[in-house]
Design a protein that fits this description.
The complex is a heterodimer of chains A (about 270) and B (about 350). Chain A is built from eleven helices and no strands. Chain A is mostly helical and about 270 residues long. The C terminus of chain B is likely disordered. Classes of the chains: A mainly alpha (about 270), B alpha/beta (about 350). The complex binds adenosine-5'-triphosphate and magnesium ion.
């Protein structure tokens, strides 16, 4: 298979990103990393007095709250960036007046979205590395690290964020809104997917809901592989679950995008 | 050959008239339009604002699905074979859209070329040629946002040619360009048809462009084709009356009376208007009065600067055709219905 559209979109986005404010982008990254680390640090030391409830270690599989939160935030960053970039790709084309010229071409949608996704993953990996470096002095530690399990987990996590973002892309293009849809979704995901605290603290029905979102499973996998020392073999059940959920989201997303795409073209005047 | 038959397009729009109240309205933008495009031919699509030109072009270029009717491009079906058709067509619109402002000219063409899956070596050559053709070779590495309007438009033309399309749809390609650049663009368009055998459909509000370029013209109004023919044929449609103009060197009292008498005896309802400032007569009548007027001028030994019949104008024809019925200039289909949504 030729991946021309994938490569071209990947490269196009890099060029655009590098051309628009690379310096501000870097400074922004470092600042948000410091903010994440500092807030986790203060939460732990001032709010909880360095003492977590016993239940925390039971639910989280670790007593290290700071590492728990920072790893959660790193994955959340991957998720937010993927959602932002992949979901907004089509509506950005619409706003910049290039949706029609894009749709005139006979290209593969999957490659287009993957190109957007991969470019973002590369930059976000850099961001996460910066974040982890900044957080080291605040006490982030990978107490039980299993490289293979983490790698598979990260790959599956990214796939699941990608499929989620296809759904959001359809929603955004349909409502022609980015602000409300994305921020509502981010807030919900942040609250119910276990980014900063185990989902077991949530009321029953919400917990049930959060298990249907691949983000929750991805966070479990990554934490189990970096803090809990679980092997890949021990996590096969989670791998299958996240892959199945992603497949469902992905298929639904593509079907919806196809519909929404032509609806969006109908709404362009002149 | 491209053939569109009985194309219609109805837009359905939803307006929120309250927080929960929704009003759906339908706009019949195009109704039963049929047209043909052949290689090497430039076809004009004319009509006043809102006539349905852009909608027609978007259906032809696969961006919109027709509500009914069919499109056939070299034997391919417009809806079923859309992917294959996309490789053979392209569209160019006026107004600074359809290119990435943050990429350079070269990067833009490269990206679109990749979307079309053009062989890399061939693409490199084509980009070179197109940049040269539209005169952007020296500016190819500057981001488009720093381009002037005319440069952006020229880049858009290059973009529209990146897949070497056989059929090109141009929607007001000279919109907002200065006279010199517009002329240059007309040059490209002419060459594309004459030298490269492309088939071009052009919409524009500049009549001069149509007269200069188009071999055949469709006039649309309220979504339908109301007239079609060569620009000359159409111009004649707008000409109800023959108009003669005589410009004199000096005022000539006797001429005034005899001209009036002669013309009115030949055609009672003719009108003769004297413009004292320019010392010119404009004679309008349903008959051709040129021999009558010439005779009077000779008899009176009037010395005149110019004596000519006014050419029929395409512009007048279009305005006249489009205003045929007096109620309302713009078409607005409003089959509104109120609807409560949960
Ligand atoms: N996306 C849309 N949704 C609803 N109605 C539309 C849409 N686009 C165009 N229309 C309506 O359809 C009719 C035809 O519009 P169209 O843009 O095809 O006209 P046009 O001939 O290109 O006009 P212009 O010369 O102003 O460009 C108009 O009444 C317009 O308001
Ligand atoms: Mg138009």
């Amino acid at each position: 298979m030729h991946c021309r559209t994938l490569y071209a979109t990947f490269r196009r986005n890099f060029i655009i990103q590098l051309r628009a404010y690379p310096k501000d982008f870097f400074i922004g990254n470092v600042l948000s990393a410091i903010y994440t680390a500092v807030s986790a640090f203060f939460m732990y030391h001032l709010l909880f007095n360095g003492q977590m409830k016993d239940s925390f270690a039971g639910y989280a599989g670790t007593g290290d709250y700071i590492s728990y939160v920072i790893i959660g935030n790193c994955m959340y960053l991957f998720m937010v960036r993927t959602l932002l970039n992949v979901s907004r790709s089509l509506i950005t084309e619409l706003r910049e007046g290039t949706l029609e010229s894009l749709m005139l071409a006979p290209f593969r949608r999957v490659q287009y979205f993957l190109g957007n996704m991969l470019q973002q993953t590369v930059t976000t990996s850099g961001e996460v590395a910066v974040m982890l470096l900044v957080c080291l002095p605040f006490g982030v530690r990978f107490s039980g690290f299993n490289g293979l399990a983490a790698l598979i987990g990260l790959a599956l996590a990214l796939v699941s964020y990608f499929s989620l973002s296809l759904l959001l892309a359809a929603l955004m293009l349909y409502t022609r809104d980015t602000y409300i849809s994305q921020n509502t979704l981010f807030a919900i995901l942040f609250l119910i997917c276990g980014v900063t605290f185990p989902v077991q603290y949530l009321p029953g029905p919400v917990q049930w809901l959060s298990q249907g979102i691949p983000v929750t499973i991805s966070l479990d996998i990554i934490r189990n592989s970096t803090l809990g020392g679980m092997t890949a073999a021990a996590q096969i059940g989670s791998y299958v679950r996240i892959a199945a959920l992603s497949a469902v989201y992905c298929i639904a997303g593509f079907l919806m995008i196809k519909k929404v795409e032509s609806a969006a073209l109908e709404k362009i005047f002149g | 050959m491209l053939r569109a038959e009985h194309l219609s397009k109805t837009y359905v729009t939803t307006d929120w008239s309250g927080f929960l109240k929704r009003k759906k309205s339908k706009v019949e933008a195009v109704r039963d339009v049929s047209l043909e495009m052949r290689g090497g031919q430039i076809i004009g699509l004319l009509g006043i604002n809102g006539a349905g030109k852009t909608t027609t072009i978007k259906m032809l270029s696969t961006l919109l699905q027709p509500t009914s009717g069919s499109i056939d491009v070299d034997g391919l079906d417009g809806v079923r074979d859309a992917i294959e058709i996309k490789k053979r067509i392209n569209m160019i619109a006026g107004g600074e859209r359809m290119i990435y402002w943050r990429l350079t000219a070269r990067e833009n063409l490269w990206y679109y070329g990749q979307l079309y899956g053009i062989d890399n070596k061939q693409l490199a050559q084509r980009i070179e040629r197109l940049l040269g053709m539209v005169g952007l070779a020296e500016k190819q590495d500057i981001p488009v946002e720093r381009f002037s309007k005319g440069m952006k438009q020229r880049l858009q033309i290059a973009r529209g040619l990146i897949n070497d399309p056989g059929y090109i749809f141009m929607d007001e390609p000279t919109l907002g360009l200065d006279a010199a650049i517009a002329k240059e663009l007309r040059g490209y368009v002419k060459d594309l048809a004459c030298k490269e055998g492309k088939s071009i459909l052009l919409t524009t509000h500049y009549i001069q462009e149509v007269e200069e370029l188009c071999e055949y013209v469709y006039v649309m109004d309220k979504g339908t084709v109301i007239a079609q023919g060569t620009p000359k044929e159409l111009a004649l449609l707008g000409m109800e009356n023959k108009v003669l103009c005589v410009e004199l060197h000096e005022n000539h009292e006797r001429l005034h009376r005899s001209l009036t008498e002669a013309c009115q005896s030949a055609e009672r309802n003719c009108s003769i208007i004297w413009d004292g400032k320019n010392m010119a007569y404009t004679i309008t009548s349903s008959k051709d009065l040129s021999s009558t007027v010439a005779k009077v001028l000779l008899e009176q030994q009037a010395v005149f600067k110019k004596f000519y019949g006014q050419e029929p104008g395409l512009e007048d024809a279009i305005i006249k055709l489009s205003r045929r019925d007096k109620d309302g200039f713009f078409y607005e289909g409003t089959e509104g219905r109120d609807e409560k949504t949960a």
